[in-house]
Queue: 2 jobs
Job 1
Amino acid sequence: MRQTQARLWIGAGLLVLLLLNLPSAGTRRMRWGLREVLAPLQHGWAALALRARETAAVARGLGGLARENREQAEELIRLRQQVAALATVAEENRALRSQLGFQREQAPQLIAAEVIARDAVGWWEALRIGRGLLDNVRPDQAVVTAEGLVGRTQAVSPRTAEVLLLSDPRCRVGVQVARTGGYGILMGRGSSPTGRAVCRVDFINRNLAPRLGDAVVTSGLGQVFPPGILIGYIERVYQDASGLYLAAEVTPKADLSRLRYVFVLTTDEFDPAVHLERVGARSARIEGGP
Amino acid sequence: MRTLVTLFMLWLAAGLQTIWPPWAVLAGARPPWLLGLSVYYALSARPPRALVGALLTGLVQDALSATPMGYSAACHLLLAAFILRVRAEVFVRHWATQALFGALGALTTATALLFLLAPAGAAHWPPGLVLWRLAGWTVAGLLVTPLACALALRLERLLGLGVYVEARP
C-alpha cells in the first residue's frame, strides 16, 4: 500500500515536471483546449451573474430604472447632435487630407465582447472575453469601453481572448497629455484600496508640465493603440528619481474592476477563410502571452 | 459517478473563482475556490483521489490565467502532500481545520507563484501592494475553504456517495 502511494506521488511529480518543461507550443495547445472547453460554461456563468445583477437592480426599485431611462434618452439626443456636428468636421477633414495628398486612414471597427472571466490567480491584471480568432480578434489590439482605453489583447484562442488591463505592470502604453501635448509612457501600478486602477506616466518633459485633472490620451506611437483614445486623468505630478523628467499618477476613466462589455478595435477586413486557416494552423504567432 | 461529481465541482469552483469580482478590500484577491476544493480532497479523500484533485485544480487554475502550465499544479500538489502527511493528527471535518489549511495553502501558493512568476513580470508591484495582496489571499483562503469543503461534502452526501474516513494510527 505504502509502495503504491509512493509510486503515485512520484508519478504525479514527474507529470508536473514534464508539464513545466513542455515546449511553449505544447502548453499553448493544452491551454487552448482547456479554455475552449470552459468557454461555453463561463458564458453561462457570466449570463447568470448578469441576470442576478439585473434582478437585484429591479428589486432596488423601478423608480431608479425610470430615472436611468430618462437620463439615457437625454444622453442619446446629446450624442446624436454631436455625431451630426462631427460628421461635417470629418467630411471637411477628409477633403483637406485628400488635397494635401495624405494616405486615407481606415476607420477602426469595433468588435463587441462580453467579459466572461477574470484572471484566476490574481497576480495578473487580466480578464478574458468571449471573442477570439473566429471573430477577427488578434493579439495586440486595443480594447476600449465608452469611457476610454481598458487594455490590449494578449493570448487569443478561437473563441476567447485574454485582455491585459492598463493596471498590469506589463502593460505599457505610449501616451500624450492632451492639454500640453507632452509625451510619456504609461504603465500599470495595480489597484488602490478603493479598487480603482492606478497607473503611472514616466518620462514627461519638464517644460511641458501637466496639471492635476489634465486628460491623458494615447499617442499612437506604439503601433498597438490608435491615437487620441482617452485613458484617464492626472491625479499627482512629481519629479522622477533622475530629476530629468516628470512623472504623474493617472486614474483610468474606465472602472477596470467592473467591466461587463468591452470593444476590441480592429482595422482588418474580416475574411473567414483566412481566419479558419489561422485557427487550423495554430501558429506560434498567435500567442502573445508569457 | 464520483468522477462526474468531481468534474462538476471543478467547473463550479472554476466558475466561481473567475467570475467573482476581485475583493478591493483584500487588495484584489480572488476567492480561491479551486484551492478550497483541493484542500477538501486532500483532507477527506483517499490519497490517489487527493492527488488527482490537486493536479486537476492546479491545471484548471493555470489554464484560466496567464500563468505557465504546471505552476499552480505543483503548488497544489505540494500542499496536498503536506496535508496528507498530517491529516491523521487533525480533525479533518472541523471548519477551523479547513480554514487553517485554506489560509496556509493560499498564503504559500500565492507566495510561491509570486516568486515563480517574477521573471514573467508578475511581481513588478509596489512592495506594499504585494504584502497587502498576500494578506488578502490568506484571508480569502481562510473564508472560502470551509465553504468549499461544506458544499463539496453536502453534494457528495446528497448523491449518496460514501465519505472516506482514514483510520487513525
Job 2
Amino acid sequence: MTKKYDAIVIGAGHNGLTNGAYLAKAGMKVLMVEKNDFIGGATVSLELYKDDWKYSNCSYVCSLLRPEVYRSLNLAKYGLQIVPYGGSATIAQNGDYIGSYVDPDVARREVARHSHRDADATVRYDRDIMRQCRFIRQFLLRTPPDPTSFKPRDLLEMMYMGKEAMKLGEDLIYDTMRFYTMSISDFLDEYFENPLVKASHSGSGIIGSALGVMSPGTAYVLLHHAMGDVDGSMGAWGFARGGMGAIADAMQGCFTEYGGQTVTGSGVKQIIVKNGRAKGVVLENGDEYFADVVVSNLTLPRTFLECMDPKDLDPGFLKKVRNFKIRGSSGKLNIALDGLPRFTALPEGSELARGDMHLIDSTERLERAYDDWKNGIWSQDPYIDMLIPSLTDPTMTPPGKHFMSVFVQYVPPKVHGKDWTDDQVHQFGQTVINQIEEYAPGFKDLILHVEIRTPRELEDEVGLTAGNIFQGELTMDQLLFNRPLPGFAQYRGPVRGMYMCGSSTSPGGGVMAAPGANAAREILGDLRKTNTVPEGWLDD
Amino acid sequence: MRTVNFSQHDHYRNAVFPSPFHARQKEHNQLREWSRWSDYLSVPAYWCADMEYFAGRNACGVFDITPMVKHLVTGPDALPYLNRLMTRDVSKIKPGRVGYSVWCNEQGRVIDDGTIFHLEEGVYRICSQEHQIDWFMTNTLGFDVNIVEDTHDVAALAVQGPTSCAILKDMGLQGIEDLTPFGLTYFDFEGTQLMVSRTGYTGDLGYELWIGPDHAERLWDRLFDAGKHRGIKAMGSDALELLRIEAGFILAGVDFLPAMEAVRPSHTRSPFELGLGWLVHFDKGVFNGRRALQEEKEKGSRFHLVKLDIDGNKPANQSFVFTKDEKFAGTVTSAMWSPSAKASIALASLEAPHGKSDSRLELQGHSPLQQ
C-alpha cells in the first residue's frame, strides 16, 4: 500500500466518512484511518450476541442527518434507508402515561386527557419551536463567520446572519435571545400547566448534556434535537434500517467508490508536523502515512492533547483545549430480549411501543436525577430514553425476538472522582434494569444479553472524551463561532494543513454529518479545488 | 351524552368518531367516501357535489356542523370579557342575537374567526374553527367568567336554502318565519330544547339547528320527512365549500393562517387585511390588538383581500396574481367556477397597494381578469 496521500482523515465515524467522501469526490486521494477493527465510530451496528442480533451500540436514532448530504453522497444507492417511527410515550409512576401520536387529532386529545389547555398550548409551542428550527437549519451547512475578522467572507456571512435574524421580526428576535439562554424547564413553564405534559417535552433538553432541566442553556439543547427531520417532517426521528451502522456503511460505500482507502485496527499515535505544517500520521502499530492535509474527526482534546506533540502547538491554544467543556453525562444499555416487554401503563398492543419511551413524571424528578450526577454517582432514579427498533426493523433480530436500546442519564465520567470499576459498571446496569422492571414486570426474565456502556466504555471504545456523546457541550459558549474554540470555528487547526471535522466543531453533535461536510468545503476551498459540498438550506 | 370520549387510556384506538348523525349520513352516503373534520367523520359528497350545491341554492341542503368547536361563556363578567377578547362591540349583540366576529393577538393579527351566540342574558356560545380554550383562558385574568368547551355536548345541523324556512315550519317550528337574520330562538322538540338560529355559511336563506346529541337522529328524521316535497338533500363539505366561496366568506386555514399556527409571522393577517374592518370597533375601549390595529388604520395595511372575477371558465385554484407589467401582486386563496354567477371567481390576498386601485390583474397561466 502506498504511503503518500492527498489527505488523511483520522477516525471513521460518520463525520470523518462524510469528510473523506467529499474530498474523494473532488478527485483527491484520501486515506481513512480508524483505530477500531470496524468503522462507524458512534454510528455503528455490532453483533455482540449471536450472529443474527444487531445492536445500534451508541447513537440509536436518526433525524439530524442533513438531507443534502444524504442526496449528494447518494446514500440511498449504498443501502441506506431511514424509517420514521411513530410517536413516543412518557410513562409515569402512577400507572398513567402520555403519548405523542402521529395523528394530529389523536395527539391533541391525548394531551387534552391530561390538560385541556395544554392541548391547545401545544399548537403555540410547536409553532415557536418550528420558528427556531427554521431559523437555525439554514446555518447548519454553512461555515460560521469569525465576528472579529474583516475578511470579506466573514463580513458577508455576518451580514447574512444579521439579515436572516432581522427577518424573524421584532418579537421573534426577543424570543430567540431568551430561547438560547434559558432552561428547558422555564421554557416549558411558559406554555404548559400539567407536570406530565412538561416532563414529556423536557428530556430532549438534557440528552447528552451534563446540565439539568433547570440549568440555563438547556432550551437550546431541545432545539438541537428538534431541528432535524425525516422526509421534511421537522422534529421527527427514525431508524436507520439495519441499525445506525448502516449510515456509516453507506458513507463508506460512497467513499470507497470515489477511490477512498481505509485502514482499520490501529489508532493514530501522532500527527506529524514539520516546519509548522501537518505532514502525515504515525499509527500505534508504527505505520506511517503522509499527506499535506490531515483531518481529525476526533474530539478536540483527543486530537490536540493525545495525538499531537505539545511542542508543535501554542501553549495558549493548548490551555483553551484543556478548558473545553466536554463532560460525560450518559450511559447506555443494549439489550437482547427473548420477547416483547409489557409496560403495564401502556394499553395492550399500543403503537407507542414502536417509538421512544421515557420513564419520568416531572421536571423536578429529572432535576433530582441530575443531582446524583453532581454528587459523582449515576442517577439512582435515572432518566431513560428507550426504543425497540426491532418492532419496526425486522433485520435487527430473529423473528419474535427484540433489541432494546436504552439511553440513560445521568452517568458521570468518574464515580466520586475515581475511575469506574467493573463492579460499578455492573451495578449501574442493575439500577437501569431494575428501573425498567418496575414499569414492565417480567422484563428481567426476557433478557438474553446486555451490553453496558458508561462514559468509560464510550471513551475507551469510541474515543469520546469523558464519554460526552456530542464531542463537547452544546452551550452558547461553545456554539457557532465559539465552537470548538474562538478563532478556530472554520475547521482549520492551529497548524497549517491540519483540519478538524468532528462533532467538536460547529454545528455540533448528533448524527448530522454537517461538521464533516463543512470541513470538506473549507479544505477544498484552501486547495482551490472544485467544491463538491452542498451549502446552506432553505425550507421553502 | 357526549359524542366523543377520550378519557380512557386507550382512546387512541378511535382516531375519528362518528357524528351523532352518522347513522343517517351513512344511509345517504352513496359514494361511501368519508373525510375528517377535527374529531369527526364528515362527508365530502353524498352523491354529487354539484347537485348538493344546487340543493343549497335552489331548495334545501343539510350539512352536519357538529364538529365545529363550541365554547360556553358565562359569569358576571362575560360581556366585558368578550369585549376585551373580540374586536367588535359585543354589547351590541343583544340576547337572542348572533354576531360574526374575529379575535386578535396583541399584534392585531387574527387568531380565528367565529360566531357569538347570545343565548340568554349574560350567557354566550362562541363557535370557532380552531381549538381556543388556552387562549380564551389566558384572557380571563381579571374577569369573573367561566368558560367550557362543549363541542361534543351539542349536535348541530346547517339547513340552508330557499325552502329551508318552509321545511322548518312544516316540521312544526311555529313562527320560524318571524326569525330575522342573525336571530336565535328556542323550540320544544319532543320534550327537549331545540335552538334555531338564522345563520349559515352559504349567503342564502338558512338556519342552524342545535340539539342534544341524543336527539340528533330524531331531528334528522323529522327534518327530512318535512322536506321530502321541498327538495331537501344531505349536503357534503365539497358543496358547502362552493357555497361559501360564492358568498365571499373566508375560511381559517385556507384564506388566512390563524396566528397561533403561523410559523412565518409574515403570513398572519389583520382583520383589515381580510376585509373585516367593519368588525373592528375602536370606540368600545380596550381590546386585544387595539393599539396595533389603530396604527394599521392610520398607516395602512400590508395586504388586501379581494374578490376576483376571472375571464374564462377555468377555476383559478392555487394561482399567483401579477400586475399587468408582470410584478407579483399576491396569491389566490380560494377559487371556483360559480354556477350561479356563471363566472370563474376567487378570493385572493394581494400585497398592498394592489387590490385598492388596480382594476385589471393577470393570473399565472390565466388570461387577463377583471376585478
